Amino acid sequence: MLELKGIHKYYNPGTLNEMCLFQDFNLSVDQGEFVSVVGSNGSGKTSMLNIICGSIPVEAGSISINGTDITKAKEFVRNRKIGRVFQNPAVGTCPSMTILENMSLADNKGKLYGLSRGINKARKAYYQEQLRQLGLGLEDKMNVKVGSLSGGQRQAMALLMSTMTPIEFLILDEHTAALDPKTAQLIMELTDKIVKEKKLTTIMVTHNLRYAIEYGSRILMMHQGECILDKKGVEKEQVQTEDILKLFNEISIECGN
Amino acid sequence: MDMFISVLEQGLIYGILSLGLYITYKILDFPDLTVDGSFPLGAAVTATLITKGVNPYLTLPIAFAVGVAAGICTGLIHVKCKVRDLLSGIIMMTALWSINLYIAGTANVPIFSQSTIFKNEMLERFIPQAIQPYMTVLIILAVSLICKILLDLYLSTKSGFLLRAVGDNHMLVTSLAKDQGNVKILGLAIANGLVSLAGCIFCQEQRVFEISMGTGAMVIGLASVIIGTSLLKKIEFLSMTTKVLVGAIIYKACVAIAIRKFEPQSMKLITAVLFLIILIISMERKKKVKIDA
Description:
The complex is a heterodimer of chains A (257) and B (293). Chain A has a single domain (2-93, 166-254), classed as P-loop containing nucleotide triphosphate hydrolases (Rossmann fold, 3-Layer(aba) Sandwich). Helices cover 34% and strands 24% of the residues of chain A. Chain A has helices at residues 45-53, 75-78, 99-107, 124-132, 151-163, 181-198, 209-214, 233-238, 241-254; strands at residues 2-11, 19-29, 34-39, 60-65, 68-69, 82-85, 169-173, 201-205, 218-223, 226-232. Chain A has a six-stranded mixed β-sheet, with helices on both faces. Chain A has a four-stranded antiparallel β-sheet with strand order 2-1-4-5, with no helix packed on it. The radius of gyration of chain B is 19 Å and the shape is globular. In chain B, 75% of the residues lie in helices and 2% in strands. In chain B, strands 1-2 form a two-stranded antiparallel sheet. Chain B has one domain (2-292): Orthogonal Bundle (ABC transporter involved in vitamin B12 uptake, BtuC). Chain B has 293 residues and is mainly alpha-helical. At the A-B interface, α2 and α3 of A face α7 and α8 of B.
């Protein structure tokens, strides 16, 4: 279980541009939940993910995973249990290394990066098996540098790589936003499959309302650092795109747009 | 023939230095100016040890270790004190100038009469007379090849993979639950170890330590790396490390040819102009690639 308690987050503290994003923000995500998070720009979605992963510090509050307080833990320490896919496909892979090398790197997460050989030939077939399910033909390009792949192919690899080793949380930060509709759909279906197979607790930020409604077991809508909608289970299944859109319009009018 | 051998000797010594710069400049994407200090550092340590009567072959690992320490310092300044990469190198380079003077005692330590890795009793006894004149170049070739092979092997290990990843995409290293700062420090340590080792060999080849021998070492190394990796880009069967070694030899050959036509004091000017030309050539190539993609 993931818990955020009494989170306070200020940007540019102590300056004229000081901006308070979160004031006493609370959220708890149960084991096995798939949370879709929607909201306008600047509503704090990505900041929330960054706070969970430790990419940015908080002024007050606590973050805990399964009861263990990780507020002070460094980002790379938290990442032992967290897999993350970013909006930018380039962030999840190493462009100057081959597909095989990238997969080997990811496969070793959580273990020692010592002086044993970087590529374990015995695992190659397994990597190819994993890549084959993407249906992108990557399994035949094991020695091609990832930098020469398209954004969609890279994002698919990033998703595979971040979920290859046992993790507890999967954090998806608008991971389909930079892709064309067809590839986005493919990545989204793959995400759903992996999450179900590995029973991962997932938080997905998206601007695609359809994905938010179609996938996942809980929907959150954020606005100015607060959750203004939180539905799960049966309630979530009844949520329609129109409802969300209506709510979206309401908050936009509030903001004067 | 003499000129050819001298180019080969110098080129391969600077080749070892360039292998170090290949790690920082190409792999880590870190403009490491520590090099101008760690190159004479290796020489200072070597000259001091040899005048004290230490076995010259022992100076090789010792010089490497001292360079590693210098690299770790630069890394700590950059990672832990959050100083910008270029400035961390400049701070260490400046500090090393004095440190080198402390180690060597003076700005100039000749080791003409002492035995070195190229000239000692053991070699004179066991190596046939016919090979003796080529001893220096052969030993340098052996050391540089060993460095190259070890570096190649290292870069194909898990730790080496992580090093390659950190310069490419440091976010990925964090995602893999590894501290990217430590990986950077490791890379700087190995790089400066190699640079210091090059200084050690250079000192024994020239039979003198001079405080100013490091000035411009980084430029020479960078030029070699860029020549090697951009001019030989199309040759796919050569590994990057081989290209860097060849690049260093090509660079030294260019300088040797240029220096014949000009006066000795124009040496640094030639270096600068050559470096500029190489940069312009390699940039054009980069552009072409972008258009292709």
